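Protocol check, entry for the methods section draft. Step 1: assemble the input record (protein sequence plus ligand SMILES). Step 2: submit for complex structure prediction. Step 3: store the structure tokens unaltered in the notebook. Ligand used here: coenzyme A. Step 1 record:
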Amino acid sequence: MTGFDVRTATTEDYEEFFALFGGAMMFDMQADDLGRQMFEPDRALVAVDSDEIIGTTRALTRDLSVPGAVVPAAHVTAVGVKPTHRRRGVMSELIRRQLREVPEAIAVLWASEPGIYGRFGYGAAAWGTSYEVDLNRVGPPAVRTRPGELSELAVEDAAKQLAPLLRSLQEHRPGVSGRTELGWQRHLRDKPDDRGGKTARRILVHRDETGEVDGYALYRGKMNWDASGPASEVSLQELVAIEPSAYQALWQHLLTMDLAAKLEFGHAAIDEPVQQLVTTPTALNRRVSESLWVRVTDVVRALGERRYAVPVDLVIEVADDLIPANAGRYRLTADGPLAEARCERTEDAADLSLTVTELGAAYLGGRPLAEFAATGRVTEHTPGALATATAAFGWPILPVSIEIF
Ligand SMILES: CC(C)(COP(=O)(O)OP(=O)(O)OC[C@H]1O[C@@H](n2cnc3c(N)ncnc32)[C@H](O)[C@@H]1OP(=O)(O)O)[C@@H](O)C(=O)NCCC(=O)NCCS
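Step 3, stored output:
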């Protein structure tokens, strides 16, 4: 007897769903047409007590870049429980049911607090880095760009031109979520109420020699003066550029804005190349925290969908208390980063054993499996298996999630 039921949401739940979640997160969510269009009620769950919604969760249909591939991933969000109904197992019931029902082989989320999701088999798979750059110290000075190399785009023209660049980032780096057309609309929406005292969003683009856009940055500014003079702030939301010349020009521009003393950026990768462009990396003032958490919901499909950095042929034993069908031994074989992998059930003896949590943490190539052996969370049964698995699951470019969803 739990005192509540869990059911799939309906279109009519939209307002109450977001009022509940907004209340749990301590902000007033505005119902609007775009939000309604993106709701996907059949992918949302509600906990109800006497017809009142007391808990919510939903999964967004989006894809995600993983090592060597872009795959469907249930993007879990809007996890909330009415403050008067906390600590009675409402969230646990919602999350357990969601994980058993999602059709994708992995589920991913950003956690408001890192203590919550490990118990459900989510592993912290990507570290994110936030910067508070001291622009007076970071260097180097601005360089001159050729005419037309940098310009601003109007928001009406942006989504079409920026979408292919995000896709190329997905091909390059794991951890990056894809955006649908509606997703782009929401991402670029710029309501004055959401600006936090900063300017309207600027859409800065870089063009190659032929005039094609090959990189962009989304940012805002905030005028400020202190006792020593101008101290304005640049707030960088997103910077996407695979071409080195575009990446370099966009960063140099932003790091040398007139009157600015500080640049804030919340979504840098651990191995963000801008660290090589500045003369004083400590002036980036980096702070590392968990970004994307990964839950493997179907081991065979999930391990078969990504690629592996070196050849591998190993039997991995996986424990999973929540999804018993996932537990067992699997043979993983792959011929290096360009080859498709195979993962199938086996009765052979295990070379390595772990729980689904460590598998999730290692899935994007950003957390070495050997790190978990040091605390007993991964056990090696065959000498050499841990080194091979660590190299195979790793990836040359580290994962980063560039958007909290
Ligand atoms: C976080 C939240 C969803 C938890 O809901 P809940 O129904 O109280 O959770 P449950 O009763 O199912 O708790 C399950 C376990 O998680 C733990 N837990 C819950 N919230 C936690 C938190 N914020 N940090 C760490 N552990 C937490 C509980 O102590 C419990 O542990 P136990 O199994 O060892 O007893 C709810 O408090 C909430 O809505 N908070 C504000 C919004 C939020 O942070 N949402 C998450 C967005 S990612």
